[in-house]
Automatic annotation (TrEMBL):
<dbReference type="Pfam" id="PF03853">
    <property type="entry name" value="YjeF_N"/>
</dbReference>
<keyword id="KW-0413">Isomerase</keyword>
<dbReference type="InterPro" id="IPR004443">
    <property type="entry name" value="YjeF_N_dom"/>
</dbReference>
<comment type="function">
    <text>Catalyzes the epimerization of the S- and R-forms of NAD(P)HX, a damaged form of NAD(P)H that is a result of enzymatic or heat-dependent hydration. This is a prerequisite for the S-specific NAD(P)H-hydrate dehydratase to allow the repair of both epimers of NAD(P)HX.</text>
</comment>
<dbReference type="InterPro" id="IPR029056">
    <property type="entry name" value="Ribokinase-like"/>
</dbReference>
<feature type="binding site">
    <location>
        <position position="121"/>
    </location>
    <ligand>
        <name>K(+)</name>
    </ligand>
</feature>
<keyword id="KW-0456">Lyase</keyword>
<feature type="binding site">
    <location>
        <position position="157"/>
    </location>
    <ligand>
        <name>K(+)</name>
    </ligand>
</feature>
<protein>
    <recommendedName>
        <fullName>Bifunctional NAD(P)H-hydrate repair enzyme</fullName>
        <ecNumber>4.2.1.136</ecNumber>
        <ecNumber>5.1.99.6</ecNumber>
    </recommendedName>
</protein>
<feature type="binding site">
    <location>
        <begin position="403"/>
        <end position="407"/>
    </location>
    <ligand>
        <name>AMP</name>
    </ligand>
</feature>
<keyword id="KW-0479">Metal-binding</keyword>
<dbReference type="InterPro" id="IPR000631">
    <property type="entry name" value="CARKD"/>
</dbReference>
<dbReference type="InterPro" id="IPR017953">
    <property type="entry name" value="Carbohydrate_kinase_pred_CS"/>
</dbReference>
<keyword id="KW-0511">Multifunctional enzyme</keyword>
<feature type="domain" description="YjeF N-terminal">
    <location>
        <begin position="10"/>
        <end position="211"/>
    </location>
</feature>
<feature type="binding site">
    <location>
        <begin position="58"/>
        <end position="62"/>
    </location>
    <ligand>
        <name>(6S)-NADPHX</name>
    </ligand>
</feature>
<comment type="similarity">
    <text>In the N-terminal section; belongs to the NnrE/AIBP family.</text>
</comment>
Length: 498
């Protein structure tokens, strides 16, 4: 598990640590770690051409000191100064080690960057604000087209450290070397996409840091959460999931939601819906117990003996659907509400019920649905995803999973989790229905809502990567990737444990 802290917290922790250390010690630690990673990326250090892009603050200082280390080992190091000032100590160290320093020149910058074997982006770190100004933006553009790998110092310049937002230009790094703790923006798109592989350099900040602001999970963290049936398990102990998805218009939503649950593993799925949908579900998944229920007229809407309920995908927003959701939310069962159920909640009638439930509740909106839940615009949510998912969890007093290129999971009073798995190909119709089924199965198996959401999002992304094999995927293909993803994640855990 990787923990990230916001800039404000990093600054406080750094100040506390610096007060106990000789001046410049922290920057030396950071720069030494940076130089080690840079050296590993070069076939050999001696004779390699390293170009440093140097901003006016301490981020540039890190790059200059690391450049001095590489220069002392025989690299040909050139610093390009992006601003009219640069870290004095770093400049002196680079000069003393034989490195060359030049101001940014529009007509020579391209040749300099295109001749490099390695480009080090030390323009902006946690002190960056807003979109990159010139010439930083020009250098970011040249670095993106130059053939050499790009190493970002602390974070790619132009990425907001706290949110991952990018306004205008930003550096696209192959590797980011970050110091002391991860920054949230390294795990949230578009920042995560700009960061490449992320290395953390320990500069001794750990004891000064409070609990994390954001968490990112890896296979090894997910493996122990996946339910494993034992010899004692029967279908009821393994969990019965009630699925209230699909309608005459959207039959596929029921098939995909049920499929997601079955492929993840659950004791039993009990499906209830209109008769033509029941037929379709049973034709694809004969192991399901299915009841003909017309949610628009029936009074028998009680999910009965279930361990968890998934409600909403393709279900509809008619008065009967509102009644059905009402009954489900009034129960004391763990509930996952998605799609149409979110539209009903956003309309206001049932939001109080969500807020006051004591049983686990998970909402799984995409940006448009979250915007409706918060009475704002989709663009607002897309621009500041972390802020909005946190706000929704707080205001609705439940767990909220915001789907997107980085799926975020928030629960009141807990650090937000950023999901690191997946592929842009996941943005396909029905993919969210499968996710609901996966998470529903995990909730029915007894995982708390937040853990089920974290685990389910990870699994969903891994399944997509395994299923696509270089070609576009449909939501149905995703289903076949789920068991393989589970096997990979479990296998990873066994290797770690050996
Ligand atoms: N603190 C510590 O103990 C340690 C810190 N460490 C390192 O220090 C880094 C933080 O250094 P920092 O605070 O000096 O800020 P930094 O990221 O260099 O940026 C400031 C410069 O950027 C400029 N600038 C801002 N926005 C801009 C824009 N949009 N477009 C263009 N320019 C823009 C701004 O210019 P100004 O706006 O002031 O004119 C100023 O010149 C941190 O990330 C880590 O690498 C490590 O050594 C470990 C120990
Ligand atoms: K940087």
């Amino acid at each position: 598990m990787r923990s990230a802290h916001t800039v404000g917290i990093v600054r406080e922790a750094e100040a506390a640590l610096m007060a106990r250390l000789p001046q410049g010690a922290l920057m030396r630690r950071a720069a030494t770690g940076l130089a080690v990673v840079c050296a590993r990326l070069l076939p050999r250090v001696y004779g390699s051409r390293v170009v440093l892009l140097v901003g006016g603050g301490d981020n540039g200082g890190d790059a200059l000191y690391a450049g001095a280390d590489l220069s002392a080992r025989g690299a040909d190091v050139r610093a390009v100064l992006a601003g009219d000032r640069a870290h004095e100590g770093g400049l002196a160290a680079l000069r003393a080690a034989g490195g060359r320093i030049a101001d940014f020149q529009e007509d020579t910058a391209e040749d300099t960057l295109f001749d490099a074997d390695l480009i080090v982006d030390g323009m902006l770190g946690i002190g960056g604000r807003g979109g990159l100004r010139a010439p930083h933006a020009v250098l970011a553009g040249l670095a993106a087209t130059a053939p050499a790998p790009v190493v970002a110092v602390d974070l790619p310049s132009g990425v907001d450290a706290d949110t991952g937002e990018v306004t205008g230009h930003a550096v696209r790094a192959d590797v980011t070397v970050t110091f002391g703790t991860y920054k949230p923006g390294l795990f949230i798109d578009p920042g995560a996409d700009r960061a490449g592989r992320v290395h953390l350099v320990d500069i001794g900040l750990g004891p000064e840091l409070p609990g994390p602001s954001l968490l990112s999970f890896e296979d090894a963290d997910i493996a122990p959460l996946l339910p494993v049936p034992d010899a004692e398990s029967d279908k009821y102990r393994r969990g019965l999931l009630a699925v209230r998805a699909g309608s005459a218009h959207y039959r596929g939503a029921a098939v995909l939601t049920v499929g997601g649950a079955l492929r993840t593993g659950v004791g039993m799925v009990r499906y209830a819906g209109p008769s033509p949908v029941v037929d379709q579900v049973l034709a694809r998944w004969p192991e399901v117990v299915a009841d003909d229920v017309d949610p628009l007229s029936s009074t028998d809407l009680d999910p009965g003996r279930a361990a968890a309920v998934v409600i909403g995908p393709g279900r509809g927003v008619l008065p009967g659907n509102v009644d059905e959701l009402h009954v489900v939310l009034e129960s004391d069962l763990p509930v996952l509400a998605d799609a149409d159920a979110l539209t009903i909640i956003a309309a206001g009638t049932l939001s109080d019920l969500v807020r006051t439930r004591t049983a686990p509740t998970l909402l799984t909106p995409h940006a448009g649905e979250l915007a409706r839940l918060l009475d704002t615009d989709r663009e607002e949510v897309e621009a500041r995803r972390l802020e909005h998912v946190t706000r929704a969890a707080r205001e609705l007093n439940c767990t909220v999973l915001l789907k997107g290129s980085t799926t975020l999971i928030a629960h009141p009073g807990s650090p937000v989790a950023a999901n690191g798995t997946g592929t842009p190909l996941l943005a396909t119709a029905g993919s969210g229905d499968v996710l609901s089924g996966i998470i529903g199965a995990l909730m029915a198996s007894g995982l708390p809502a937040t853990e089920a959401a974290v685990c389910g999002a990870h699994l969903h992304g891994r399944a997509a990567v395994l299923a696509h094999d270089g070609a576009p995927i449909s939501a149905s293909d995703l289903l076949s990737g789920i068991p393989r993803a589970i096997a990979r994640i479990r296998g990873h855990n066994r290797t770690k444990g050996m």
